[in-house]
Amino acid sequence: MPWDVLLEIFSVMHPRELLILARTSKEYREFLMSRNAARFWKAARQQSESDLPDCPPFLSEPAYANLVFFAHCHNCTAPNVKTVIWEFLARYCQKCKEDMRRRLSDHTEIYFMVDIVEQDTRVKIADFLNGIHISPSRGSFPRPFYHSEEFREFQRDVYGLRAGVHLSAFVKQKAENVKLRKQFATTMREWETKQDQRRVSENEALKDARLEAVKQRLRDEGYGPQLDTMVLDELKLLGPVRQARQLSDRGWKTIRDKVVGFMESVRVDVPGQVGE
């Protein structure tokens, strides 16, 4: 297929589709992971999630898409991992999450290194390493946990400081990066909250529309007088009715007997109702 056609297709694809495509061949991967392809990722992101915050400066567009749209564990690739740890820029399944987040006291060598860095620079670890606060057990106070990978990276970077690069300058840069990451994490959690609220609203609208469709089907079968006098709460909460999906003809055939059976069970003495 000609590249100009492919480029047109890329520009209207969902970021998740671009991620899958990038994994299908070496050629696609090399192109889609190049800087020249950033505009396609950006266009895909903006058209699929118009309110999604812009890609942060510390992530590439493909990496951002992978973080937001690909629900696989970043360590073992297990599927259906819904939660993103934004401070770590990662998704982890429950098993890997336990391995990838660590308290400072779990790493003796790094513990002493961090202690020296804090004393030399007067900067606390919470300001130069990305952390999250978790309650280890029910009722316990939240404690700071850090990313295992970042521990190792920090250790490597400190040992590898070039001659003439002062530790304070290095830690200052790390602190600026952590500040940006915290701001990003806050922004993304706010976005997630809005997404959750939107989904709830959309689901409620679908449920309300389904209830109205069921009521119309019942009226078509002669249950109008009963609907006009009964309290609709029980019908509204009936399992086949209280679903966030449109009611098709086929769907009505599937649930009709149960819904009609319910109407018969709560029938009231209304002149002209079905069966009189």
TrEMBL record:
<dbReference type="InterPro" id="IPR036047">
    <property type="entry name" value="F-box-like_dom_sf"/>
</dbReference>
<protein>
    <recommendedName>
        <fullName>F-box domain-containing protein</fullName>
    </recommendedName>
</protein>
<dbReference type="InterPro" id="IPR001810">
    <property type="entry name" value="F-box_dom"/>
</dbReference>
<feature type="domain" description="F-box">
    <location>
        <begin position="1"/>
        <end position="44"/>
    </location>
</feature>
